[in-house]
């Protein structure tokens, strides 16, 4: 009886060994894509200038056409979990608009549009969860949550009559949520698609806007709220140790 139990134990050990060998330990990847347009601020205030009286002015600041590149590294402590470190950089178009309503003018008056360049960088750490062991199936979706920092850098304005005059770089704490999927290409190489949202507080403040006419009411300068930075990335990822895929033969 004891001999039979020992044989079963040894058989179970060797049967489990190939499956354990298939589980990756670490992974490295890179990718490129876009960050969808983000509205950084949208607020209304009342301005009063000499000879014109009080007027309602609307200001918006958008970032669009952002191309981004990213790198990431992962460690797999269990079959279904990964601890993840990610870095991304990108640049795009900064589009501020200052709009003043004028009596009898349905279209109003736009003081400025199209400001210049905006650069972003992100650094975050998080946890990814798979329903199956990575690399064990041909298609493996996953979800990710994490925290990090998101940095904006705006091109300085050279004009003195512009409303939007941002200062230097600024960083915001970010909550990261998203999902993705791995499509096994060969051995330990997968094609990876990710959709991640870096949610931050509004990175702009009253000091980033010029005061024309009278000083704005304090309530109008409280630019609260949040900004979503949705990143869509397509790239490649490689699992280590190399080999051992159950879905694609060597």
Structure description:
The protein is built from one helix and ten strands. It is mostly beta strands and 250 residues long. The radius of gyration is 26 Å and the shape is elongated.
Would you spell out the secondary-structure blueprint of this structure?
Layout: H1 2-22, E1 26-35, E2 38-49, E3 53-75, E4 81-102, E5 105-113, E6 116-129, E7 139-154, E8 170-186, E9 189-201, E10 226-240
Number of DSSP helices?
Answer: 1
Strand order, main sheet: write it out.
1-3-4-6-7-8-9-10
Overall pLDDT level: 78
Q: Low-confidence stretches at least 5 residues in length (pLDDT < 50)?
A: 5-21, 217-221, 246-250
Helix/strand structural class:
mainly beta
Cα-atom Rg, whole angstroms?
Answer: 26 Å
Strand content: over 45%
- Biggest beta sheet attributes: 8 strands, antiparallel, barrel
Topology order in helix (H) and strand (E) letters: HEEEEEEEEEE
The gross shape turns out to be elongated
Q: Helix coverage percent of residues?
A: under 10%
Compute the separation of the termini in Å.
Answer: 40 Å
Number of strand segments: 10
